[in-house]
């Protein structure tokens, strides 16, 4: 369970995050929604302990500042945007690195770890590609590899950073439905996104991050992601270009998890 | 397998030189030294005192340069760098040169290490662009720092005495013709220790090559790890430079060859780089002392082999890495 209390962060003299507070729980797919530059990634980096912040981040009630990177990695799995790597690691190599927080020795994964990796690679549908070099995959497949790596990490909380930002439409829906099924299986998932349609279609809850680095809304997407909220977050949209909400699919309802 | 090959190459290397010593005689000298045979072989002095120390030193230097190259590449997330390109070799040579020029209470190896460390630190901070260190700026920063140290080193040659000058020239082109057992007993064990140390860090080095934020989110604290890897790699490089001068490209060529064989996993790349590096430098040194009547500096041979290889890598690999 992630609980953030009165978190604030400033780069030199610019306040990026202010008075951030929220709690998420198991099985909840929560969107962190806001325009580029609103501080979504910065909030992730605070939660992960990469930045020094004011306020508190608690993981199952424990102050995250008292945890080592290894202990945090046992509790939070972070999925970055798909990227390339200068070294030609295979899909399997990439996923196996997700086992790092659970390794006892110094010399890498053991047989039981490798079996876990095979299972999670299968669960994202990449078993046939597991010996291919990661950098030769398509963007969508690379994103799935990073999700599989987070699954191999077996952490209770998943943080995803714009997981569909550079993917085509088909891959966006594929990645979102995998994320959704993870939450249905009990994972606690926080996804940052700038797309209101994705929030409405897939998420259980939305935290809207405004330009001043404060939350301006928190609630179930249908009630929260209104044309007014979207117009506030994206002032460059003129009247008439305003966003029109798409109805959520019948299979996906916030009430499912309550 | 590869360590067996290194031993075979070492024995063959002992046979070649200013004149050929048959393999049987070489093995007979070893037998005599181990007390298995009468010690009346006429080649004993050449085999034991000149060739064996030289071959061991060449192997150690090759292992040190190749391993530190592999480790630097992983920790800087950049497969195109090596101790020479980063300016570490020039910094270490400067340190060794300084020991020749002024009488400091520190040994040549320590000075080589300190200035090697200074060079890599300068290169690393100079290469920083908006919190990242792209391939090109890292290469450029290394060239700048390397030529700065080389320039001061060149200045030493003008202010030095004849005796100092004679000793300084050695570091510019590199070589093993001065190899002695006194160096072997320091350099060989220290290299083995450094290689094993880096080998043990192979797994976390894999994670570090994903970038600092990702490594950290997977449970590896990047800063202390990078610090250890840079210090150990620089110590290995400094050790190599202090006994053999600047030998370029080994740290680039060899880890790449290792990756072609076993893939990018540092747990395998590091030990294979060590053995391939030892074999490569022993062979280059064999060439250095046989292709002409005099000695050809070994740095000349590795540069002739290495420069085309870097061009090849730049043309084929960089676009696919997308990180220039």
Structure report:
The complex is a heterodimer of chains A (258) and B (324). Chain A has 258 residues and is of the alpha/beta class. Chain A has a single domain (2-257), classed as P-loop containing nucleotide triphosphate hydrolases (Rossmann fold, 3-Layer(aba) Sandwich), CATH 3.40.50.300. Chain A has helices at 40-47, 69-75, 91-96, 111-123, 139-152, 169-184, 196-202, 221-224, 227-233; strands spanning 2-11, 14-24, 29-33, 54-59, 62-63, 76-79, 157-161, 188-193, 205-209, 215-219. Chain A has a 6-stranded mixed beta sheet with strand order 6-7-8-3-9-10, sandwiched between helices. In chain A, strands 2-1-4-5 form a 4-stranded antiparallel beta sheet, with helices on one face. In chain A, a hairpin with a 5-residue loop joins strand 9 (205-209) and strand 10. Chain A starts with a strand and ends in a 25-residue tail after the last helix. In chain A, 43% of the residues are buried. By secondary structure, chain B is mainly alpha-helical. Chain B has one domain (2-318): Orthogonal Bundle (ABC transporter involved in vitamin B12 uptake, BtuC), CATH 1.10.3470.10. Chain B has 14 helices and no strands. Chain B has helices at residues 2-15, 23-33, 44-75, 88-101, 108-126, 135-159, 162-173, 181-200, 202-208, 212-217, 222-244, 250-262, 266-290, 298-321. The two termini of chain B are 36 Å apart.
Number of domains of chain A: 1
Beginning-to-end CA distance, first to last residue of chain B: 36 Å
How would you state the average pLDDT of chain A, rounded?
Answer: 88
What's the story with the biggest beta sheet of chain A?
A: 6 strands, mixed
Amino- and carboxy-terminal Cα gap of chain A:
16 Å
Which structural traits does this protein have?
heterodimer; A: alpha/beta; Rossmann fold; six-stranded mixed β-sheet; 9 helices; 32% helix; globular; disordered C terminus; B: 324 residues; mainly alpha; 14 helices
């Amino acid at each position: 369970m992630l609980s953030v209390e009165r978190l604030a962060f400033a780069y030199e003299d610019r306040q990026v995050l202010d008075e951030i507070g929220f709690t998420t729980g198991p099985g909840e797919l929560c969107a962190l929604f806001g325009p580029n530059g609103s501080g979504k990634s910065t909030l992730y980096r605070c939660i992960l302990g990469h930045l020094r912040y004011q306020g508190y981040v608690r993981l199952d009630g424990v102050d995250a500042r008292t945890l080592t990177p290894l202990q945090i990695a046992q509790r939070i799995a972070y999925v970055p945007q798909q990227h390339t790597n200068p070294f030609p690691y295979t899909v399997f190599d990439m996923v196996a690195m997700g086992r790092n927080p659970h390794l006892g020795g110094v010399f890498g994964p053991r047989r039981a770890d490798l079996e876990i990796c095979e299972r999670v690679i299968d669960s994202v549908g990449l078993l046939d590609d597991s010996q291919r070099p990661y950098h030769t995959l398509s963007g969508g497949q690379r994103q799935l590899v990073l999700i599989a790596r987070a699954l191999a990490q077996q952490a209770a909380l998943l943080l995803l950073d714009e997981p569909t930002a550079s993917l085509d439409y088909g891959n966006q829906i594929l990645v979102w439905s995998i994320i959704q099924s993870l939450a249905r299986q009990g994972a606690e998932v926080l996804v940052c996104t700038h797309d209101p349609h994705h929030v409405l279609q897939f998420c259980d809850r939305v935290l809207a991050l405004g330009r001043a680095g404060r939350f301006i809304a928190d609630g179930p997407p249908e009630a929260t992601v209104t044309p007014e909220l979207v117009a506030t977050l994206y002032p460059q949209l003129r009247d008439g270009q305003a966003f029109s909400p798409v109805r959520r699919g019948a299979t996906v309802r916030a009430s499912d998890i309550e | 397998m590869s360590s067996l090959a290194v031993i075979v190459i070492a024995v063959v290397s002992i046979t070649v030189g200013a004149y050929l010593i048959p393999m049987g005689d070489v093995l007979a000298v070893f037998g005599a030294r181990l007390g298995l045979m009468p010690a009346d072989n006429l080649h004993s002095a050449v085999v034991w005192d000149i060739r064996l120390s030289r071959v061991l030193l060449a192997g150690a230097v090759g292992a040190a340069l190749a391993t530190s190259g592999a480790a630097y590449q992983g920790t800087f997330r950049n497969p195109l760098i090596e101790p020479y390109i980063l300016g570490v070799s020039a910094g270490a040579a400067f340190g060794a040169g300084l020991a020749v020029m002024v009488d400091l209470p520190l040994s040549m190896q320590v000075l080589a290490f300190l200035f090697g460390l200074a060079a890599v630190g300068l290169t690393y901070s100079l290469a920083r662009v908006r919190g990242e260190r792209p391939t090109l700026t890292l290469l450029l920063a290394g060239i700048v720092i390397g030529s700065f140290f080389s320039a001061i080193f060149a200045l030493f040659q003008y202010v030095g005495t004849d005796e100092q000058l004679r000793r300084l020239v050695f570091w510019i082109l590199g070589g093993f013709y001065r190899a002695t057992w006194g160096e072997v007993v320091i350099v060989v064990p220290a290299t083995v220790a450094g290689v094993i140390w880096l080998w043990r860090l192979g797994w976390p080095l894999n994670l570090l090559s994903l970038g600092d934020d990702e490594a950290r989110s997977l449970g590896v604290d990047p800063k202390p790890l990078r610090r250890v890897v840079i210090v150990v790699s620089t110590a290995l490089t400094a050790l190599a430079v202090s006994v053999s001068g600047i030998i370029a490209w080994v740290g680039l060529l060899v880890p790449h060859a290792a990756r072609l064989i076993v893939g990018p996993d540092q747990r395998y790349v590091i030990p294979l780089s060590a053995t391939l590096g030892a074999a490569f430098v022993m062979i280059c040194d064999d060439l250095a002392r046989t292709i002409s009547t005099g000695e050809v500096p070994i740095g000349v041979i590795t540069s002739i082999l290495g420069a085309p290889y870097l061009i090849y890598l730049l043309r084929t690999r960089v676009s696919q890495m997308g990180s220039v």
